[in-house]
Specification:
Layout lengths: L5 E5 L8 H14 L4 E5 L5 H7 L1 H9 L9 H9 L11 E4 L2 E4 L9 H13 L3 H7 L1 H12 L4 E5 L6 H6 L5 E6 L3 H25 L13 E8 L9 H19 L17 E5 L6 H7 L16 H24 L1
Parallel strand pairs: 1-5, 1-6, 2-4, 2-5, 6-7, 7-8
Antiparallel strand pairs: 3-4
Length: 332
């Protein structure tokens, strides 16, 4: 794997924060800006793959597995899961210029138990088989990136703290957390931060043990957060959202970075970890999904009308700025 590949994941233990939509649009913008970009769908719900490829193609990859060796995540790891061999080389789908995807698969959920058992075993003994399983999703993601000589590797994962995500995050250099100004999103930060910290410590303890051949995994460090602005509702005043938004910086610094009060920023505007505030593109998301396009490429023929044209232009600017902010993370 080229040392220059930048790998990251959008992750929060809370659904409904726009994780997959952000990932899809960021990938397109990175590719548009000249970066060879690879997506790997490690969410068994496969929303990213449906978004990028459409249901018909995805179902054909699932149903005709024997004719599509290596063309889904689950097919690539099948021999590892069954203890019958190593990873199948990944075969990626071209999504756009400079953009490729290793599609997800509902069958990946069958790997959860094996990963959970392997993680426990590799911490108890020098079990090469368990180590082989525990690092399989890391190795597959890096193989996928290497296949296309990628500059950027983005992982899509589900909103949970299970064994699949723990194994997938090994492939990420950085974790970026999408949040919304509400109670449940902040609770997601409180759950996610300490769990990621424990996973990293567990892995570091493994690296200190002799006898195992360790790949150079990412450090899956939290590097920032993205705030999705509220969707205005008549029954909930803006001030209610603002109260939650004002709590995001201290929640991130306390529970994710695990810093003391003296390091908490006074506001979101003063917080260098706030990478962006993005508009809630509620009315445009279903249009983008139907057209299988990023929001900033939508046109009148895709159903855009009236004031939505300005929202499309705003989306282009927001994602350009967000890509620049993420690039800065890997320069620093």
């Amino acid at each position: 794997m080229e040392a220059t590949v930048n790998s990251f994941v959008l992750f929060n233990n809370k659904c409904g924060v726009g994780k997959t939509t952000l990932t899809f649009n960021l990938a397109h913008m990175f590719a548009r800006r000249g970066a060879r970009t690879v997506l790997v769908d490690y969410d068994p719900q496969c929303n990213l793959s449906v978004f990028a490829l459409g249901e018909d193609l995805l179902v054909s990859l699932w149903e005709d597995e024997g004719d599509h060796a290596g063309e889904t995540v689950a097919n690539c790891i099948d021999l590892v899961r069954r203890g019958k061999g190593d990873l199948r080389p990944p075969v990626l789908q071209s999504v756009a210029d400079n953009l490729w995807l290793l599609p997800g698969d509902l069958a990946l959920s069958r790997f959860e138990q094996s990963l959970a058992e392997a993680w426990g075993q590799v911490h108890q003994t020098d079990n090469e088989r368990a180590f082989h399983v525990a690092t399989s999703l890391f190795r597959l993601a890096r193989m996928a990136a290497e296949t296309e000589n990628a500059d950027v590797l983005l992982l899509d994962v589900g909103p949970n703290l299970g064994a699949i995500n723990r194994a997938a995050l090994l492939a990420a250099d950085a974790i970026i957390m999408p949040v919304a100004p509400d109670l449940f999103s902040l609770q997601g930060l409180r759950n996610t931060g300490p769990t990621i910290d424990q996973w990293r410590k567990d892995w570091q303890r493994l690296e200190e043990r002799p006898g195992l051949s360790f790949p150079s995994v990412g450090r899956f460090k939290p590097r920032g957060y993205i705030v999705q602005q509220h969707l205005a509702r008549a029954d909930r005043p803006v001030t209610a959202y603002q109260l939650w938004a004002d709590r995001i910086p201290q929640c991130f610094h306390e529970h994710v970075l695990q810093e003391g009060r003296e390091k908490w920023p006074p506001s979101g505007e003063a917080d260098p970890y706030r990478l962006a505030m993005v508009k809630h593109y509620a009315s445009l998301v279903p249009l983008a999904q139907q057209a299988r396009k990023p929001i900033f490429d939508l046109k009148q023929v895709d159903g855009v009308s009236g004031g939505q044209t300005q929202s499309v232009a705003r989306a282009r600017k927001e994602f350009e700025e967000l890509v620049d902010a993420i690039r800065e993370l890997f320069v620093a």
